[in-house]
Amino acid sequence: MGGLCQDRVVIVTGAGRGLGRAYALGLAAEGAKVVVNDLGVGTHGDATAETPAQQVVDEIKAMGGEAVANLDDVADYEAGGRIVQTALDTFGGLHGVVNNAGFVRDRMFVSCTPDEWDAVLRVHLRGHFCISRHATDYWRARSKAGEKVDARIINTSSGAGLQGSVGQSAYSAAKAGIAALTLVQSAELGRYGITANALAPNARTRMTETAFAEAMKPKEGAFDIFAPENTAPLVAWLCSERSANVTGQVFELLGGMIRVCLGWTDGPEFDKGTRWEAAEIGEKIGELLAERPSPKPVYGS
């Protein structure tokens, strides 16, 4: 096998199904050696007896690629170290981490419980921290030893994180945090040869089946814009050596459309030159809001 990622070692979390599976297979098709991480849990993080990670490994090996399964919990810090060590022990190195694992527990904000909130932020936000932190230790040590490092962190945000989504307050908050985390990682880690980018994919997965099943259903005879495989080429390119000059970006992809997100930036302003009186602020705020471009609406609003 050969391709953009020939002999690069990449960890993909949540790689047993959906987007993660598509990423793992796509990376293997481009020559990467893949650590396929998946706990085999349900869409709400509930335990099952399934072993999708090994099934994906078997698929990769059947196509002539190299892969190893890992069943560790991405949000457990010590387990994150074991996932990285799996790559080092099996393939002798590590070049990329694709943080994809997650689940949803959709609730309107007024119904969301503390346990549900904590569970969603744990798997998404803490899960992104744990593996990347151990991977960064490995890459930073190599850089400080004088070795050339060309490493990648690929995070997973969401349109819910970029603009909010009704019924997904915890998920939206976690995904917004991941977008901001990506910016900070990019700014801090570039000196060590590490880039950090994020995805906000639009794809049909187990997590979208409950809320968007009908809207995302494939249309017979038409290009399946919601197929998880559509995002895999972007992931492979971001993990490759060719993306070394791209960092700190969030990409949205829908079918054949790739969008670079603009993110937060300065908007209209007015400087009075002295302290404001509370009673006079409202009029000026109204003027400034009238000047700013209209934001994308919150999903479902």
Detailed description of the structure:
The protein has one domain: Rossmann fold. 41% of the residues lie in helices and 14% in strands. It contains 9 helices and 8 strands. It has helices at 18-29, 52-62, 77-91, 114-144, 159-163, 169-189, 206-212, 232-239, 278-291, and strands at residues 9-13, 33-37, 66-70, 96-98, 151-156, 194-201, 250-254, 257-260. It has an 8-stranded mixed beta sheet with strand order 3-2-1-4-5-6-7-8, sandwiched between helices. A hairpin with a 2-residue loop joins strand 7 and strand 8. Helix 1 runs parallel beside helix 2 (52-62). The model has no long low-confidence stretch (mean pLDDT 92).
Oligomeric nature of the chains:
single chain
Computed over alpha carbons, the radius of gyration is 21 Å
CATH fold-type name: Rossmann fold
How far apart lie the N and C ends? 47 Å
* Apparent shape: globular
Number of helices: 9
Largest sheet: 8 strands, mixed
Structure summarized in a few sentences:
This protein has 301 residues and is α/β, with parallel strands linked by helices.
